[in-house]
Amino acid sequence: MFGKKCTLCGGKLVDNKCVECGLDNTKTDKYYKLNQSSCDGEPLTHVHENPEGKKAKIQYHMPAKPGEKKQKKTGKVLPIVIVLIILLANVGPFLGKMASGFVNQFSDIETDISSFTGGGRDDGSPDYEKEGKYDYVERNLKTGTSSYDDTLSQGYYEVGSQIPEGSYSISLADGAGYFEVDDHDNGIYIWENFSAETTYEDAITQANDVRLYEGALLKIDGNVQLQVTSDSAAPSENQQMTANPLTETVLLKENAEAGVDFAPGVYDIKAISGNGGIDLFVPGYTGEGSGGDEYPTDNIGLAADNSYNGQTIKNVVIPKGTRLELRYVEVECTPSAVIAGEDYMKYYEQHYR
User: Taking the CB of residue 172, how many other CB atoms lie within 10 A of it?
Assistant: First the structure.
């Protein structure tokens, strides 16, 4: 015969006390009623009378829905949730900015590399308008009715004197090398690798709408010939080329200084022996970035065998006090046929700021 069980949980009783929940089952149902209330049968809003006969506060009793469980206390969880929300509100935007910064930085680097090398051009011809090369230009490009058509090799060419202002097409005629436009006044900087070799991903053979403003400097580097043409060139009325006052050719086999070992001026420099180049150290620089008082000039590559480096570079401006350091070459300095003027320092002040 089965013994009595706990009226609360159905557990085993020992001395009328449940071994499972501890309920004293000697109490009568008068005191222990499961899932019942003294308010059962009363309206939801009613008044309890206290023993003294005074009315107590109105109490509202909302019956539980079938199957509804009592909610757990949230006293410890709520502060944690609030702290997390505060942290996310303050740290979230910072992390978002960091992530956005990394993405933007990578995008900027990718854009700079693309515009610098010319990569990513399916047809091999750049569109400088779309690439934003002319975004900072504030003045209109002069257009004329003159035609310009010349084949240029390694050297320096000033726009307005050696080349008229205008919009040009540049095409590869022979060899391989580099083409550069430095226009500080208008914020135009273009660099291209010209080559017919398909192994060079950044190489091009044609560039159109190359806008050359008066005062810009066009540089060509390497063993390359470039065809430069325009149908709307506008020759300058202010700048005219003049004959070079120098006539003596100078042979240099070691380092030399202009004004001491040879006359300052504008020269075409040709390698007659070796394969290396020359470095120019021009004094008088007062800007930033060179680490001293010398202008940050270019490293000029020259080769007597006219291999990868060109054999001759034209229109090299050499002011007084400039040091020439030879790298594995002997050179011959021949005065350029025509020059833009004899203020040689002004050339560096304008183009190498």
Answer: 21
